[in-house]
């Protein structure tokens, strides 16, 4: 079958999202609200694949990113002009979305999508391309992965933990590790209060806590007012939800959760370092899981990491909430080898700098 493509930087958001909802595995990261967020210096590109009957059979939302500016530092600012010349890239998360279960059709549609991505990469002259597959696309097999390899991509194995919310609340609780259940109960005994975001004042609390967290890493939030605006807008639209933990009227933890297609996704957790035994994040994880169950979500994704990550504690924390370990893949294609090597070198230097600052 012959396939045609449509590329655009400006689409009807409602139609795009409604088409995504025809898939069981599309998540917030392919939704128009995420792709068009201008918190970073990004350009969104929307790719549609249509068949001979003019039916939409594939979708992929890309972000062309010039720099990473949500967090910055004096060191980063000093070299930002140099770094910006080597960091231009295409990224996507939890895609492509292919509206077919036929194995051969899926491969052919993916091939067409990757050709379109190459055209976008050439147009915007990016250094590299990096994409994350959807964890709940359970039809990704070796032949599907081979299409990426045939198009010049290198595969990295990642894993996440997915909780099926179809059972009872009692079953969900019993699947949580004994240690995590104990920490949740201890948080309640310490009178830590969990709630969902309700007011602008609370979004101020969340961003201020995020700024405090960033400061411990030697970073600053480049545009906190813009961050507040986007977070509040996304919370009101429902594409994201923010959960807050207070102790004695002070925010000690915050949780940002992506919400789309009845799939919840832990975006990030932030904690105050004023209390060395802060259990706010633990309480919020259970609170959000409970909230998702009560609001008829099908699945909760605790977010993932490289299968071979050295940060074992991070995966251990995600694992204890009862989700099923699930593989997904990151595919990377380097277009400019020297620029990419320089970018990797600078990135690793900055990462070591932030790590040293965080230990002070």
Offer a few descriptive terms.
alpha+beta; 14-stranded mixed β-sheet; two-stranded antiparallel sheet; 13 helices; 41% helix; globular
Please state the structural category: alpha+beta
If you compute it from the alpha carbons, what radius of gyration comes out, rounded to the nearest whole angstrom?
21 Å
The biggest beta sheet is recorded as: 14 strands, mixed
Nearest-integer average pLDDT: 90
Could you tell me the number of beta strands?
Answer: 16
Low-confidence stretches: none
Distance between the termini: 60 Å
Secondary structure layout plus pairing:
Layout: E1 4-8, H1 13-20, H2 32-35, E2 42-50, E3 56-65, E4 71-72, H3 74-78, H4 80-84, E5 89-93, E6 97-98, H5 103-124, E7 128-132, H6 142-150, E8 154-164, H7 169-175, H8 178-189, E9 193-196, H9 200-216, E10 220-221, H10 224-237, E11 240-247, E12 250-260, E13 263-271, H11 280-294, E14 299-301, E15 305-306, H12 312-319, E16 324-334, H13 337-358
Parallel strand pairs: 5-7, 13-14
Antiparallel strand pairs: 1-2, 2-3, 3-5, 3-6, 4-10, 7-16, 8-14, 8-15, 8-16, 9-11, 11-12, 12-13
Explain the overall architecture:
This protein has helices spanning 13-20, 32-35, 74-78, 80-84, 103-124, 142-150, 169-175, 178-189, 200-216, 224-237, 280-294, 312-319, 337-358, and strands spanning 4-8, 42-50, 56-65, 71-72, 89-93, 97-98, 128-132, 154-164, 193-196, 220-221, 240-247, 250-260, 263-271, 299-301, 305-306, 324-334. The protein has 360 residues and is of the alpha+beta class. The strands form 2 sheets. Strands 1, 2, 3, 5, 6, 7, 8, 9, 11, 12, 13, 14, 15 and 16 form a 14-stranded mixed β-sheet that branches. Helix 5 (103-124) packs parallel to helix 6 and helix 9 packs across helix 10 (224-237). The chain is globular. The N and C termini lie far apart (60 Å). The model has no long low-confidence stretch (mean pLDDT 90).
